[in-house]
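Forum: Protein Structure Q&A
Topic: Joint prediction for protein chains with partners

I've read a bunch of threads here and the consensus seems to be that you should model interacting components together rather than docking separate models afterwards. I'd like to see that in practice. Below is the full input, 714 residues plus whatever partners are listed. Could one of the regulars post the assembled result?
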Amino acid sequence: MDNVIKNIIGKDISIGELFEEYRSQIEEHSSEVLNSFRGEAFDTFQETGIPSNKVENYKYTNLQPFFKGDFKFSIAPGKSEQNVEDVFSCDVDTLDTYTLYVVNGWYYPLNDLEGLPAGVRIGSLAQLSKDDPAFFKKYYGKRVPYLSDGIAAMNTMFAQDGFVIHIPKGVVVEKPIQIVNILMSEESLMATQRNLIVMEENSEAKVMVCDHTLSTDKFVMNSVTEGHIARDARLDFYNLQNQHNATTQVAGFYFEQHENSLVSTNNLTLHAGVARNNIELKLAGEHAEGRAYGLYLLDKNQHVDNFSYIDHAVAECFSDELFKGVLDDYSTGAFTGKIMVRPDAQKTNAYQSNNNLLLTNDAKINTKPQLEIYADDVKCSHGATVGQLDEDAMFYLRTRGINKEEATILLMYAFAYEVIEKIKVKPLREQIRGLVEQRFRGELDKCHSCVVCGQKGTEITCL
Amino acid sequence: MLSIKNLHAKIEDKEILRGIDLNVKPGEVHAIMGPNGSGKSTLASVLAGNEMFEVSEGEVLFNDKDILDMAPEDRAREGLFLSFQYPVEIPGVSMVNFLRTSLNELRKYRREKPFSASEFLKIMREKKNLVEIDSNLTNRSVNEGFSGGEKKKNEIFQMAMLEPKLSILDETDSGLDIDALRVVANGVNKLKRPDNATVLITHYQRLLEYIVPDYVHVLYHGRIVKTGGKELAHELEANGYDWIKKEFEDQ
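Posted by a regular:
Agreed with the consensus. Here's the joint model:
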């Protein structure tokens, strides 16, 4: 096998062998439902392995080199995952949220979620899948491509914990639900996280997931979030990524939407090492509306690859995509916008746009619209741009006494603004607005601070 | 205040300004007229510091400082203002943020305390009334979706906010209906003081009925070929530029 992990129990071992060796241990601690998927996922993984750039969907990001080397593999929650209260000094001033923590993929046992509306369940995947197997059987793994995608297969093989959000019929959760994902370790770590969001008919929630690294070790995170959005339900989903340069994160978001539902996703990558987002919205009920937005701000040798897939499976659905990136230094990025309009999906409206600002000659972006349209009565549009800062605007600002650096920041911010504007939760929008500006000014402690909750980290090094 | 001597400037080896001489004193209004392509807008751009043009010869002193080596922002901080012929739309940058940044940069340069948010808003309100700008415009992004007239009014509004010593108005009258022209001209007249000066660049005499110049210069082929009082503008209006061209070619 190609991907060999070294330091687990002090020997070289491939990811497949690792699974075989620890399978019984994993299964012993996990629920039956989770275990029932491992066999097929493993068979798939044995065929696919970790995707290289020879796999069409991973053309711009060869993941193989990042999934091998000297890592501890997180098979069970360790000591650090259970003893981190002192780090959780979350100081929420403007943002009133239900906040929960997930550490290295493990649901933090001391999460305190008081005051949730009646019937709403938020908790650990490990626990809930044991407590309510019927619920899990109905939803778990139904939308995740673990039979075709190597990363999803690997995630499903090792999946043990993560968060679950279940909003019952008709319930509106007013306060945003914030998940703070923390990576912290005393050695290089490879971890798995599996999340499930189930929104029943006519329910509503805002979910924001913040990804942070709290120690300077090398991390590889394989995370999958699956969402089932029933008819008339509304989900606002935000993923704010702020991880240090030695982090590789592959995050899959697989949402299925039913009739008249509304899902809006916004992937904001403020800082990352290597990040790959798989964002899939399946519009499976008429009049469903899917919106996928993203903003990536890269410098140094960072690499971010957003792969979106909007599947118009039935008629009369609407989708809108906007991804924007600012790339500095010798950073690289990729965007793929796959839109599938199936034969019966008449009256589809699908819009897609990807705009990039390259600040240097060394920065590079690959952008690829990929439209497959099998119905004839549809409206689809797509556009991609790659450009530099507008010289005319720059001159205009400078003639008003604003220096080049300040003008550059204003213009970069102006470019990013369109995506920030899509954030519907106003205090969150304000926070992110300020944060993006800080990021452009180089004032953001990129490595550690939790930007939304004000979590301060140790300013050891910015790699 | 402004002293231009033998200014030559080119773009991609094409010489556009071929030896401009001009002196502007405080309290004066100068009009620079001329046919299309004579170099009027280039002169404005070069003075403001547009790096697209290369100055190959000559000297420009502004308040006794050589400004040709200064960055555009420093020229602005010294008190030079250019009202653009085509103001640039900058979606995503709010008028308020833009103007406050701009004004405070100028104050910082003069070692003055930056305005607080409330002080700034108060000044903005006063100046808005002065130049009769629609108050909604300042709630929007810089020039975004503004009509031609609104953009020009916005330039004059910025001029009112920044209180420059020397304002160069590049074709501020072009594309304006009579009401907008009146608003723009009134704004300029109200801002006139004994210690500041204005250079109007225009193709037509129309604006000069509202803003009366002390001097009128005719620019042709990159050079000022004729200078006179305000009556020269009337002569140009009546007879066009052909006689100037002819005079020039006869020389």
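Helices of chain B lie at 40-48, 72-78, 95-109, 117-131, 148-162, 178-191, 231-239, 242-250.
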